Amino acid sequence: MKNFSSPNSDVELIKAIGDGDHKAFERLADLYKNALYNFVYRYIGDMPAAEEVTQEVFLRIYRAAPKFKVIENTKVSTWIFKIAYNLSMNELKRRKRYLRLLNDHAGKKEMPDRTQALESIENRELMEAVISELSLIPENQKAALLLRINQGLSYREISEVLDVSVSGVEMLIFRARRHLKQHINREHKG
Amino acid sequence: MKCRDIQEKLSAYIDKELNPDRFENVTQHLIHCPECRSELEALQKADTVLKNVPFYNVPAKLTERLLQEIHITSSSTENLNFINLIFAPMTKFFLNFFTLVESLKSFKTATLDEFSDFPPCSMGYIYFNLIDQRK
């Protein structure tokens, strides 16, 4: 799944964005928008919110680009996913607070945008089941698993995004996988 | 290693994040242990389920909205820079000007105080005497 540009070209893009180059920004957005959008959607579980957060991630990148400093062994993609993770985490907290206030609506699940909906009902059901199951996994475990499985980040890169040790990442992913495995077992037995 | 230890390492084994020795240990264990092999397959199945969740393309309107926002942000920054370009030198000029005026004021006062020994009955003598009385 990981198909980002090379680290050097990413750094050049960020520098160009910092110098006010809008074309460079468009190029960066093209490279990362789908990966970020899908990561945020899986993390939050709601498409309109994922759109908002993805947009905010790019605005943050644009504003921060002039101050961006190249740190050895740190990739631009890691920096970008760190921004996405932090904003998604904030959004999830905000939504939880909001849902607590609106207890009446707690049972209603927001459906994905119909224009984006899948053609196959089976796929849609699977997607909703997995997204719903993901919402039950502790947030840091979920983020670690998504960054590994869907974005193909290494444990070291994930550790930079989540601000935990590499062995901590190993444990988070192990627990998240075990959780998903138990869910699949339940589904098969049910 | 016991099955429990091996199973805790299976997730990192799938991700190829174990060091070569540990990776080899787990591989050897899996060859002889059906229970751990089954656990490995179950974890891999969980990965497959997650990978099968469709990957969406970001809506086109989001990209358009984003580029609009960027243009607004950059033009407001440019306006700010333009304002700074005019006002920064002006502020600096007035700041220097008032500093100079203030320093001149204090300079004059100090000089007058020093000239307090005027000849008797002169205007200066009378003036400073009056001031002293007020004090």
Model description:
The complex is a heterodimer of chains A (about 190) and B (about 140). Chain A has eight helices and no strands. Chain A has about 190 residues and is mostly helical. Chain A has a single domain (about 5-190), classed as Rna Polymerase Sigma Factor, Chain: A (Orthogonal Bundle). Chain A is globular. By secondary structure, chain B is mainly α. Among the domains of chain B are: about 5-50, no CATH class; about 105-135, no CATH class. Chain B has five helices and no strands.
CATH H-level superfamily of chain A: RNA polymerase sigma factor, region 2, helix turn helix motif
Helix fraction bin of chain B? over 70%
Rg of Cα set of chain B: 43 Å
> Which ranges of chain A are low-confidence, i.e. pLDDT below 50, for 5 or more consecutive residues?
109-119
CATH topology of chain A: Rna Polymerase Sigma Factor, Chain: A
Largest interface chains and counts: A-B, 47 and 33 residues
Task: Find the count of extended strands of chain A (DSSP E, 2+ residues).
Answer: 0
Oligomer: heterodimer
Backbone structural class of chain A: mainly alpha
Average of per-residue pLDDT values of chain A = 83
Biggest beta-sheet profile of chain A: none
Shape of chain B: elongated
CATH class of chain A: Mainly Alpha
Task: Tell me the layout of helices and strands.
The complex is a heterodimer of chains A (190) and B (135).
Chain A: H1 7-18, H2 22-44, H3 47-64, H4 76-101, H5 121-134, H6 139-149, H7 155-162, H8 166-189
Helix pairs in contact in A: 1-2, 2-3, 2-4, 3-4, 4-7, 6-7, 6-8, 7-8
Chain B: H1 3-14, H2 20-32, H3 34-51, H4 60-114, H5 123-134
Record keyword descriptors for this entry.
heterodimer, A: 190 residues, mainly alpha, Rna Polymerase Sigma Factor, Chain: A, 8 helices, globular, B: 135 residues, 81% helix
Summarize the structure.
Chain A contains eight helices and no strands. By secondary structure, chain A is mainly α. Mean pLDDT of chain A is 83; it is low at 109-119.
